[in-house]
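Summarise what follows for lecture notes:
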Amino acid sequence: MTDDVHTQVGDRLVGRVLDRRYRVGARVAKGGMATVYEALDMRLDRVVALKVMHLGMGDDAEFGRRFVAEARAAAKLSHPNVVAVFDQGEDDGTLFLAMEYVPGRTLRDVIRQQAPLSPARALDLLTPVLSALSAAHDAGIVHRDIKPENVLISDEGTVKVADFGLARAVTTTGQTATQGLLMGTVSYLAPELVTDGSADARSDVYSAGILLYELLTGSKPHTGDTPIQVAYAHVHADVPPPSALEPGIPPYVDALVQRATARDRDLRPADARVLSRQVRRVRSALEEGLPDDPDLTGDLTVPLQAMRDESGYDDGYTRGTGYVEHRRDQYADEPASANGYHDPAYSNGYHQPARRNDTIVVPFEPGGAPPPPATRVTPQPPRKGRGLIALIAVLALAIGVGAAGWYYGIHRYTATPVLLNLTATEASAKAGEVGLRTTLANQDFSETVPRGQVMETSPAPGDRIRKDGEIGLIVSKGPERYRVPQLAGLNLEAAKRALDSIKLVTGRVTDSYSETVPAGRVITFTPKFDTVMKPGNTVNLWVSQGRRPITVPDTTGKPVKVASRTLRKAGFTVERTDEYDEKVPAGSVVSQTPSSGTLFAKDKVKLVVSKGPPLVDVPNVRRKGLAEAQKILTDAGFTVKVEQAPFHLGLNLVAGQNPAAGRKAQPGTTVVVTVV
C-alpha cells in the first residue's frame, strides 16, 4: 500500500469492533477532543455515530470524568431536535459515546451555500434550535457551544442540535467553567464566558443570537486576526443590527438580534423558551408583511439607561420609561464607526440605538416617569466669513477620504500567491516570504494531488488579500480508499449498511444453502476482508438460505441393503430395527419413518426390516404313521420330506424327524421324517 492511501485506511479504529458491539466505519468529523465515526451497532443492527475520545486524552482522569458526564447529561434529553445519546463505554482505554446518526449536512453548509437568508427562512431554521435548547434549559443544562457546526440538518429536513459535550448541569452559583478553561468556539462566545468563565441559559441565548445574525448576513458580527481579538470584541463591542449589512431587514428583526446578543446578560431573554416566544412574534409580523411594527420593535429593543460620569458628562440619554427622540445633530461631535454607528469605545459600555430617518428611539426602564417631550436642536445659521474655512475643510476632507480609500482599498492588499502542490510547510514558508500567514482550513480527498500537498487555497491564487492576512490551505488526503470490512455472519441489511458507511456498493447478492450459517446471514463475500478499494466499487455477497432441504425417498418393501444405500446417498443417516412379519419377506423393509416429505443432511431415517414370519414349535410325529405325521406337520405350516430308513421294513412308521420335536422353526420350513 502506498503512502497516498488516505487516512481512513490507516486509521487504527476503522474496521475495529469496540466493546464487542460497535463496528467502526468511515470517519465523519474530527474535533478538538474527539473524532466521530459512522458505526454499526451489531447488537441492535442499526447505524450510529460513534464519538471516540482522542488517543491519550483518556489518560487524563478529569477529562475522562467530564467525557462520561457528557453522556449522562445528554441522555437526560429526549427531544426530536436533540441528537440522542444511546450509550457510553470504554474499550481498552478508548472512551466513546454512541449517538444517533443523522445523515445530511450542517448549518455551516447552509450558511456557506445560501446566506444571507431571508428573515423568515433564518427564523425557521433557528426555531428548532431554540426548541432543543429550551428542553436543555428546562433540564438545567447549558450547551455552551452553539455554533453552525453543531446544528445538523437531516436529509428529511429535520434540524437537530448535537454535541452537548461542553454542557454542564447548572449549579446554584451558575459557575460552570472548569479550571478556568474557556470552552466553546470564540465567534459565538457570550461575553461572560470570556471575562469570568461563568455560563447560564442566557449564554446559549447569546450564541443563538449570533447564529441568527450570521444566517441573516452571511458573516459573523465580530472578526479579528486572532481569537483573542474576537473575544475582546464580544466583551467591548455591541453586535450591530443586521440591517447595516442587509438594508431590507425590518427594525423588529434588528431588535430581536440585538436583544438576544446584549452584552449585559440581564438584558437578554432569560432562556431559550423566552427567546422562542419572541421569535414567534417576529415570525408572525413577517407573515403579515409588516415593514415595521413600532410596538414589537419597542418591546424587543434593548433598554438603555442614562449615564453621567463623575465629570458631569451626559451620554445624551434620559433616565425614565418610555421613549424619547434625539436628533442626529446631537452626535455630530462623536466619532463614528465605518458602518455609521458609534464606536463602542465611546459608548460607555451601553448599546447605541439604531438610527433611522434622523431620529433615534431610545427605550427606558418600565415603571418610571413618563418621558419628557422630544428634544429638537435648531441648527444655527452660518456666520459670515466662514465660507473659505468651510471650503478648505471640504477639500481637506476629500483628500482625507481619498487617502483613506487608497489605504484601505488598495495599499493594504496584495495578490494571493500560488501555493498549490506544495506541502503545508512549504506553502507556509512561501506565504511568509510576502508577509502572509497560512492555516490548515480543511483536508479533502484527491485522485490527482498527492497526500499532504495543497490542493486549494482560500482566497484562491491571484485573489485579493490583506498584506498581513491569512491564507486557508485545503490539503490533500490523497486518494479516497476504504478497507472492505468483515461481513461474514452479518445479516444482509447490516452488511449493506456497513458498505454504505464507507462508500462501497453492494454488488451481486447470491442466495446459497449453508449447513453452518443461519438463514439471512452472509456466508462469504468478494473481494475478501481488508482489501483496499475506491469509493463506488462493488462487493458481492453470498447470503445463506439456511440448510438445504432434501426429499426423502420411500424404500418400503425394498431389500434393506438397497434401502440403506439409497438413503445414505441422499445424505441421511439410517437407523435399522428388525422385526418378524408374516407378509414381508425376511430382509426387506417393513416400514420407514419418515417415508415422505423433506429432511436436512445428516437427519435420521428409521427402517424396520422383516425377519420373516414368527417361529412356531415343530410338532412331535415320531411313532406316528406316515399319513398322520404328514397331516400334523402340514397343518402346522411346515412342508414334509419323507426319507426311508436303511433298514426299511415297510411299516411306514416315523422313526425320526429333523428339526426335532419341540424345536422352533419358521412356518414353511421343511421337516424331514424318516420311516421304517
